[in-house]
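Here's what a typical entry looks like (Catalase):
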Amino acid sequence: MNEEKEINENSKNEQLELFRSADNQDKIMTTNQGLKLSEDEFSLTAGERGPTLLEDFHFREKMTHFDHERIPERVVHARGFAAHGEFEVYESMKSFTKAKFLQDPNVKTPVFVRFSTVVGSRGSLDTPRDVRGFATKFYTEEGNYDLVANNIPIFFIQDGIKFPDLVHAIKPEPHNEIPQASAAHDTFWDWVSQNQESANMIMWLMSDRAIPRSFRMMEGFGVHTFRFVNEEGKAHFVKFHWKPLLGTHSLVWDEAQKLGGKDPDFMRKDLWDAINMGNNAEFELGVQILEEKDEFAFDFDVLDATKIWPEEDIPVRIIGKMTLNRNVDNFFAETEQVAFHPGNVVPGIDFTNDPLLQTRLFSYTDTQLLRLGGPNFHEIPINRPVCPFFNNQRDGFHRQTINKGQVAYHNNSLANNSPKTVSPAEGGYAHYQEKVEGRKIRARSESFKDHFSQATLFWNSMSAAEKQHIIDAFRFELGKVKSKDVRQNVVNMFANVDLDMTQAFAKAIDVVVPTSGTTNATKSSPALSQENTLKKPNTRKAVVVIADGFNSINVKAVLEVLESNGVHATILSDKLGPIKALDGTELESKHTFLTDGSVAFDAVYVEGGANANKEFEKDAKILIKEAYMHYKPIAVTSEGLLWFEAQQLVKGPGIIAGKGQTTEFATQFIEAISAHRFWERQVV
């Protein structure tokens, strides 16, 4: 048994190796047919200045492959980044589900996770205000299971028939293809005001959740209600959660905008660099489990994808951990070609009548047929299951399997009716036998019609700073909307969520400020506020700003404390290369004021240097002020302290000033980095 488990753990890597090309280092160049080449710089021509000849098969092969290298990008979730890892369950979930990968804590299941933005094209930036995809492929011994999740637990719509309208509205407007990767335009907000079921999702989208600090620091949610089914056939409703072990943290809006210009690849580089440095991304898998008898016990419909199950009412049970520990070898072959589908399930996991989920079960396969060129996309290495698979499907574009034998149909006698089906007791998948009946209608249950209570619940759950960020987000987004009628419609809609909130942003966008609304919900959920998340310094990034003539005692002491607490520190100066201290010590600068600003880091420590010139001082002051405005931890010593005081900034929360070599200074700096932001700071 242990030998079988070891084989299962290694099988995905072994399977991928069969398709992974050897590195080109020290190899002889050949055509794709293996013919060794003597020249790759010049086409075959009739004389040195003559025409290119049609018989140049090498030119044609090379150019044809280049001309066909691109495949259609995803309509949504086009910009993605991924990593490999493993999942292990903490305890057997046998009483709830017969899914084998959720049974044995000693088995590690290979996974592949793709994070993404939703709206922007593949060439857009990492930091827009947007939902983030969080799709996980589990390579289990029973087949591939895909948990296709987002970092927001709900969605804009209740029925997938509206999905094309939503995407058409939020994408760049068709007459001029503007704006890219942004919801701040007329067609999207017009759609919102005419589809009020989106109210709850819009509150999340306007919140800090829509600008995560890192893929490693955001939650993931399965969004839909699924079913667990155990060996006895008993079912429970279930929702899936990914909880980051680093806590849930975000950027601030101004910081996100600046990062989009300075480093449009900020989030993908963060994940890539973290894994390369051994700072593996870790998430715990949680489930909310509900007995079927309690399906109608709440003031919302548990099948409504625009609603959460409040964690205070239905607690999240942590059942396992996922560790992302290996970067991809080839972005296109893995990240771009991976195909997810919520219909890729294993025995023990089943669907519900959630109308949005039902439509996704059709749409995902349909999309992959276009993107990946036909029905054999499951044979692409990144999509292949680790377990054997056999059926009577044949041929088609990009077929890789060479099937033997004369039989490709079921039932048959010539091959002893192989491949054969097996019973559920032998591992065959059987759909949960839910009784379904009703007239054929186009309608939605009355239980889906409350669009505002949970939007108000979300607002009530926010801290004062988070509420202000939501107001500011509405001001920005609606400030970009040209149609006054659309702005007014949105204001009228959100007066039903919270009147004070709506009045606050309505005053800034030239509309009639509402004086009444309909909601009176008072409930809150502390789990929704990021102020209540985990806060620790692990894997945070701190920049140390020094000039020639710096105090090496201060800097070395701070660097040692940062490193010992898991903070990644790096040197920034006015130039790259060695920076010399007063005592002759040298530290290497890997960043400059021109290439990076405070926005690229979680905390700043400015020491300065006795030989810093006026230009250095000016740049350092800008860096300090920017970090101050973004509520970040700031430590200052020597010249850095003088530059801080010269700007008349208040030495309030998160400001550590003094001598870097003291224990008190170091302790306060680490505590400040753990806190992440200091919203109570008075920004001047």
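The mean pLDDT is 94.

More examples are in the samples folder.
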